[in-house]
């Protein structure tokens, strides 16, 4: 069994994963304290990770019916993410690894999102490479070619905001709570996706994406509607949310379709928080012969995906463990 920790943003996560990629426990403690600020406050996130980390580890072990005696390795997210938040997970993992004499496996968060597809789960058995993978989260959005279990090649990425960031900022403009993605999805269910035409970034070449113009377009649309006044604000919000969500889904799906065409691959996987979105899951469901759609809890940040990645990554040299550091930005 591998004990995996993930604290790259505002979720304090611990999981227990078996060598054959089965999830025995996947505990996620979301910090709702950030909602009041309309975004994650890094310093508050680190403090809450400190308070929650040990409890979440204990909970994961208990749910797996295990103790630390059963654990053969500790996996942890090293980056990218919020430095202070990452440090809590890494320090915890180091402490457990050094105290118990266990190997420590540092994992890249984005490799983790891809590796969610290497777990047994609702989507069936693990997906074997090669495949195309869309990762869309609050901090990153890219389409990658996955040829093996331990790396991937980015084919196209966002040139500005991530898809989740666009949804979060859009939700804010619509007066919806943070994080915005799930709230936009909820409100959009009662709206007309064709009510407003938002830009689809047609001008962005290749497999790259852009969401900044979309957000600006929503800002101006809301401003114009407010200036015009009139009744039916709730219906209008639903239509705006539905049209905005549609524009995000459309752009992501078009890039995926292009990536499948370009690579000649007919197998698709998805990951990242935005991959929890119902309309996106539905739209991508028919893009390829094999479409692997992990359970929503494996798409949003979680530690099981870090454990999954760790199954295919080397452990750090024990001599290097004490000095091992986090990294904040994507190094690809
Ligand atoms: O992967 P994730 O949990 O954390 C990061 O690594 O960023 O992704 C969080 C992002 C947020 O922007 C959130 O609004 C979005 O995923 N998200 C969704 C949904 N659930 C989470 N976006 C659309 N629909 C959802 N159901
Ligand atoms: Zn993430």
Describe this structure in words.
Strands 3-2-1-4-5 form a five-stranded mixed sheet, sandwiched between helices. It is α/β, with parallel strands linked by helices and 332 residues long. The protein folds into two domains: 2-115 and 300-323, ATPase, nucleotide binding domain (Nucleotidyltransferase, domain 5); 128-293, Nucleotidyltransferase, domain 5. It is 40% helix and 17% strand. α2 links the parallel β4 and β5. The protein has helices at residues 42-63, 83-100, 109-115, 163-173, 180-188, 212-228, 233-263, 278-284, 296-299, 304-310, and strands at residues 2-6, 11-17, 23-30, 73-79, 104-108, 131-136, 141-146, 153-157, 267-271, 290-292. Bound molecules: 5'-O-[(R)-(carboxyoxy)(hydroxy)phosphoryl]adenosine and zinc ion. Zinc ion binds next to α3.
Helix-and-strand structural type: alpha/beta
Main β sheet profile: 5 strands, mixed
- Poorly predicted runs are none
Report the radius of gyration as a whole number of Å. Answer: 20 Å
The strand order across the widest sheet is: 3-2-1-4-5
Indicate the percent of residues in helices.
Answer: 40-55%
Global shape: globular
Can you tell me the CATH class of the largest domain?
A: Alpha Beta
Q: Secondary-structure element order, as H and E?
A: EEEHEHEHEEEHHHHEHEHH
Strand content: 15-25%
CATH superfamily of the largest domain: ATPase, nucleotide binding domain
| CATH third-level topology of the largest domain | Nucleotidyltransferase, domain 5
Q: Total domains, how many? A: 2
Q: How far is the first residue's CA from the last residue's CA?
A: 30 Å
Number of strands: 10
Could you tell me which ligands this complex binds, including any ions or cofactors? 5'-O-[(R)-(carboxyoxy)(hydroxy)phosphoryl]adenosine, zinc ion
Please give the count of helices.
Answer: 10
What is the typical, i.e. mean, pLDDT? 96
Q: Any guess at the CATH architecture of the largest domain?
A: 2-Layer Sandwich
Keywords: Acyltransferase, Cytoplasm, Iron, Metal-binding, Transferase, tRNA processing
Pfam family, one: TsaD
Subcellular location: Cytoplasm
GO molecular function: tRNA N(6)-L-threonylcarbamoyladenine synthase activity
């Amino acid at each position: 069994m591998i004990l995996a920790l993930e604290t790259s943003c505002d979720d304090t996560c611990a999981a227990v994963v078996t060598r054959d990629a089965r999830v025995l426990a996947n505990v996620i403690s979301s910090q709702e304290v950030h909602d009041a600020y309309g975004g994650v406050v890094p310093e508050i996130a680190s403090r809450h990770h400190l308070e929650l980390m040990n409890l979440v580890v204990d909970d994961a072990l208990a749910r797996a019916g295990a103790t630390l005696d059963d654990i053969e390795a500790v996996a942890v997210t090293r980056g990218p993410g919020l430095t202070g938040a990452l440090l809590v997970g890494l320090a915890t993992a180091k402490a457990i690894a050094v105290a118990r004499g266990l190997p420590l496996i540092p994992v890249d968060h984005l490799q983790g999102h891809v590796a969610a597809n290497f777990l047994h789960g609702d989507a069936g058995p693990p997906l074997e490479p090669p495949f195309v993978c869309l990762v869309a989260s609050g901090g990153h959005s890219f389409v990658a070619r996955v040829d093996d279990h331990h790396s991937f090649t980015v084919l196209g990425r966002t040139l500005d905001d991530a898809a989740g960031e666009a949804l979060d900022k859009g939700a804010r403009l619509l007066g919806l709570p943070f994080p915005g993605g799930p709230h936009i999805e909820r409100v959009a269910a009662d709206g007309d996706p064709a009510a407003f035409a938002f830009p689809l970034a047609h001008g962005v070449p290749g497999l790259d994406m852009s969401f900044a113009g979309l957000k600006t377009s929503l800002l101006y649309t809301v401003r114009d509607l407010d200036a015009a006044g009139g009744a039916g604000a709730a219906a209008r919000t639903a239509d705006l949310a539905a049209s905005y969500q549609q524009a995000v889904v459309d752009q992501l799906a078009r890039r995926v379709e292009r990536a499948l065409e370009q690579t000649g691959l007919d197998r698709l996987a998805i990951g990242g928080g935005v991959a929890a979105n119902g309309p996106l899951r539905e739209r991508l469901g028919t893009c390829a012969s094999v479409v692997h759609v992990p359970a929503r809890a494996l798409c949003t940040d979680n530690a099981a995906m870090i454990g999954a990645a760790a199954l295919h990554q080397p452990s750090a040299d024990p001599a290097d463990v004490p000095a091992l550091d986090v990294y904040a930005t994507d190094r690809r």
